[in-house]
Design brief:
- By secondary structure, the chain is α/β, with parallel strands linked by helices.
- It has 6 helices and 5 strands.
- The protein has 2 domains: 133 residues, Ribonuclease H-like superfamily/Ribonuclease H (Nucleotidyltransferase, domain 5, 2-Layer Sandwich); 37 residues, no CATH class.
- It is 36% helix and 15% strand.
- It is an enzyme of class 3 (hydrolase).
């Protein structure tokens, strides 16, 4: 059973990202403040949910949340500042979209940088422990998946509609055959034999 709060503060925000391990596309983060009476039996870490359930939950979270924000950091910036900094930047941007400044932030994972002067706690596997982080994981994942479906239309040979930019065998085979696109992260090891890859 997921807990509603980590702190006893009213405006506690949970934040999480999606797409950190992908070879293409943005890293996307969301931040969510849930009301004190929020309850939902379906809500869990987005990785534990089917795509259908994630898209059922998305409008429920957006409607019932006290506030939410969603932000992409795109591949050009990932290549400049690295994926860890890009993930934290996406989280900061999503928190910046909230209607209210949070009093406390809970973060999925073990790395974060202070946002303004707001106290925070990093929580490993936080998306399977706290509802606001789980809600953020659902918003981040569904928003990023929708974006990947859109750019799939431009480059269907990589099958991003299916793999969402993750390093599947099919995605890597397509990179070998067709090279890379403007959506690929050039700082990532796109292929195991990357030393020989021509950009």
């Amino acid at each position: 059973m997921l807990s509603l709060k980590y702190s006893n503060l009213h405006l506690e925000c949970g934040t999480d990202e999606a797409g950190r391990g992908c070879l293409a596309g943005p890293v996307t983060a969301a931040a969510v403040i849930l009301p004190g009476n929020f309850a939902n039996d379906l809500l869990n870490d987005s990785k534990q949910l089917s795509e259908k359930k994630r898209f059922v939950l998305k409008p429920i979270i957006e409607e019932q949340a006290f506030g939410f924000g969603i932000a992409h950091v795109f591949q050009e910036d990932i290549d400049k500042i690295n994926i860890l900094n890009a993930s934290i930047l996406a989280m900061h941007k999503s928190i910046g979209q909230l209607k209210f400044d949070p009093e406390f932030i809970i973060v999925d994972g073990n790395k974060f940088k202070p946002y303004k002067n707001v106290p925070f706690e990093t929580i490993v596997k936080g998306d399977s422990k706290y509802l606001s982080i789980a809600a953020a994981s659902v918003l981040a994942k569904t928003t990023r998946d929708t974006y990947m479906d859109k750019i799939h239309e431009e480059f269907p040979m990589y099958n991003w509609k299916q793999n969402k930019g993750y390093p599947t065998k099919e995605h890597r085979d397509a990179i070998r055959k067709y090279g890379i696109t403007k959506y690929h992260r050039k700082s990532f090891k796109l292929l195991p034999e990357q030393l020989t890859l021509e950009f």
